[in-house]
Amino acid sequence: MIEDLIKAAESGKAMDQFRLGEALFFGQDTEKDLEKACHYWRLAADQGMVEAQYNLAQAYLDGQGVSPDLKEAFGWFYKAAEGGLPLAQFTVGGAYYSGETFVDRDPAEAVRWWGKAADQGLPSAQFYLGLMFFSGDGIEKDEAKAVALWRKASENGYGLAQANLGSALCTGVGVAEDPVEGVAWWRKAADQGLSMAQFNLGNAYNNGLGLEVDHGQAVHWWRLAAEQDVPEAQYNLGGAYFSGLGVEKDVEKAIEWWRKAAERDYPPALENIRLLEGKPTH
Questions:
Q1: CA 117 to chain CA mean position, Å
Q2: pLDDT of residue 100
Q3: Backbone φ and ψ of 150, nearest 5°
Q4: At what angle do helices 2-10 and 14-26 cross, to 10 degrees?
Q5: d(CA 96, CA 73)
Q6: Residue in 150, 227, 141, 226 with CA at minimum distance from that of residue 189
Q7: How far is CA 54 from the centre of its chain?
Q8: Counting beta carbons within 10 angstroms of the beta carbon of residue 245, is it exposed (0 to 12), middle (13 to 18) or buried (19 or more)?
Q9: How far apart are CA 131 and CA 166, in angstroms?
Q10: SS (HEC) of the chain
Q11: How crowded is residue 54: how many other Cβ atoms within 10 Å of its Cβ?
């Protein structure tokens, strides 16, 4: 099988060159050879195959099969982006947004490229384009458009968008306030392990926002966020242990969680530790 693929690739067919590059890169039915993989990807990329251009760009970015070269990587990402590949458009947008490589920061260009990828349904691009509309960075501020983009990304399962959509619905920013739906989106994001969504869901249970008060569930979600080093969740979990609300009272555990939050310079936790240690407060 691999022999047939080699023959087809040598005949100059871009798709077969791309497939052979994949086989060599991942060691599928042949010995792994990153340099040869990049050779065949380049042959396909030179014929305008955007998937090969993207893979070659990634190889230059990571230094796999070729020497790392950010300029070369960006050049191939740009070609693939111009060819309409959403992942490449997203990457080019990210480069212009950060300005951390050899391109100057240009939020408007980031918006342009993320917009192209978002129009093709890429959830990550929809999310980040939403952030730009929300902040007014590189484009006129429009909270409603931001929320609409987050909804599209959320419906495609993108956790960060689900968390932001939940917050927008719970506060009525850019959309009609609807805590019940907002909390439902927080739960979807929390189930994916997003720490701030877990923290927000814990707060919702604690305060009865969009659902029935359940201090035990509040503790459950705060704990998950606290274990991911969210200081606000560590502080709240400490408070639960200190008061015995939703969990068995345990002052030692309360102090342990407050110390963790204090180590991350969370002011309320620092204040509690100072009070417990009898130090002057500020």
A1: 16
A2: 81
A3: -65, -35
A4: 140
A5: 14
A6: 150
A7: 20
A8: middle
A9: 14
A10: CHHHHHHHHHCCCHHHHHHHHHHHHHCCCCCCCHHHHHHHHHHHHHCCCHHHHHHHHHHHHHCCCCCCCHHHHHHHHHHHHHCCCHHHHHHHHHHHHHCCCCCCCCHHHHHHHHHHHHHCCCHHHHHHHHHHHHHCCCCCCCHHHHHHHHHHHHHCCCHHHHHHHHHHHHHCCCCCCCHHHHHHHHHHHHHCCCHHHHHHHHHHHHHCCCCCCCHHHHHHHHHHHHCCCCHHHHHHHHHHHHHCCCCCCCHHHHHHHHHHHHHCCCHHHHHHHHHHCCCCCC
A11: 22
| Structure-token pair, residue 213 | 């008060």
Q: What is the pLDDT of residues 43-100, one digit of tens each?
A: 999 999 999 999 999 999 999 999 999 999 999 999 999 999 999 999 999 999 999 8
CA distance 85 to 184: 33
Dump pLDDT digits (tens) for 123-167: 999 999 999 999 999 999 999 999 999 999 999 999 999 999 999
- Neighbouring C-beta atoms of residue 152, cutoff 10 Å: 19
Name the residue among 32, 31, 88, 30 with its Cα closest to residue 65.
Answer: 32
**Which region, left, alpha or beta, applies to residue 229 given φ > 0 means left and ψ of -120 to 50 means alpha?**
left
Identify which of 116, 112, 47, 129 has the alpha carbon closest to the alpha carbon of residue 87: 116
